[in-house]
Amino acid sequence: MHTGIMAAGMLSIGLAGGYFLARRVMVKRFNYLKLEAKARARAIEQEAQKLLQEAEMERSQLAMEQEKRFNERLEELEQRNRQLIARERELEAETQKVHQLENRLSEKLKRLEELESRKRAAVDEALSRIESLASMTREEAKGFLLKEVEERIESETAALVRKKLKIAEEEARRKANYILAQATTRYAGEFAGERLINTITLPTDAHKGRIIGKEGRNIKTLEQLLGVDIIIDETPGVIVVSSFNLYRRAIATRVIELLVEDGRIHPGRIEEVHKKVEEEFEQKIYEEGENVLIDLGLFPMHEELIKLLGRLKYRASYGQNALAHTLEVARLARVMAAEMGGDEKLAMRAGLLHDIGKALTQDYGGNHVELGAELCRKYNEHPTVINAIYAHHGHEEPNSVESAAVCAADALSAARPGARREVLESFTRRVKEIEEIAQRHEGVSQAYAINAGRELRVFLDAQQIDDNRAAALSHEIAKEIEENIQYPGEIKVTVIRETRVVDFAR
Question: Which domain holds residue 239?
Fold first, then answer.
């Protein structure tokens, strides 16, 4: 029994020691967790403080940018105000000159009336003297005297007319030179040459293989849909899109950039992206035209003309961007019309629309003068605008100051050094003619000149043309190119006929 009591005591002591030990461990665990919680709280507090500081910096930066934009806009408005004040002073000076000229004219008219009175008195006196000296009747003396006076006046008048004509010609020449000098000094446009290629940077060289696709399916689909030549060489991280058509090349560049960014490159996705980009560009060219009208203050204008103005951005003539040339002509015509006392707004509108037909020539062919005049007539533009379209290429004579200003401005814009490049224009014309030869044949759905004009790729409608006719057609197109076009080297004609069957599992 004594042993049992001792065992029980030992057990109690062990239990008590275990309790205290466990409690001590729990206290240490609690202190550790408490410290850890405090550390996390401090970290969260520091992170919040850092985010607050970054937000404050962003707010300050945004405020500075807004203030900068406000100051720039304010400075621009002040500059325009100064220009308006200067123009108002010029108009006041011109008005004063007109008043002075009117006063001088009135004085000269009074002087002429006095001279006329003196002349009649002198004639009457002379008639009386002749009648008394020569024993002539009054009517005979009057006839003799009038004949003498008429001969003398005719001689003096002829000399005076020759003198005035010479003075008028010299004055007209000086005035014309002054107007041209004022126009060219007030507006100095920048020339931006158009190239025939766009370069696209790829994230990695692995994307080249994805663009080419299995057995070249992707690149074949891209070239067929986009109508461009896609050049993939050993240059690291770069592919080249080549085409003489600026609009087609811009669409192709955007399609490839979106495909590379998305990562999914296959024929179905290519067609989907191409359709989306075409819709975006249609909206974009309308916005481009709208921005031009806003800048020039020429609203309202028909929506179709606005869209064609935007399309001129993707058209070049002799290497000169058509939209840049159009804006240059509009501004020069405005300055010239102002100097000659014409309608500035009308001259600017006529200058803006004088080459509007060029927006359609790449797609429909024909003469841009006739196309432009027909469009402006259809959408009820001012007769002066239509006359300026015809006159700037000599189809009609200018019938107003505004039309004449457009003709002069067009000649200035095209003739200034560096404005145009004949070599590029002849190349693009040749390539366009090659495409047109193929498109004239029945059964051809699309035709694209690629590889710098050294290859013509023709796509046929498989429902109209069979394989035997396709082979013959390639030979016919090649012979027609040989007979009608001068070109170095050789042109490869590739005729493609394919059938595609689509169905849906529902």
Answer: 197-286
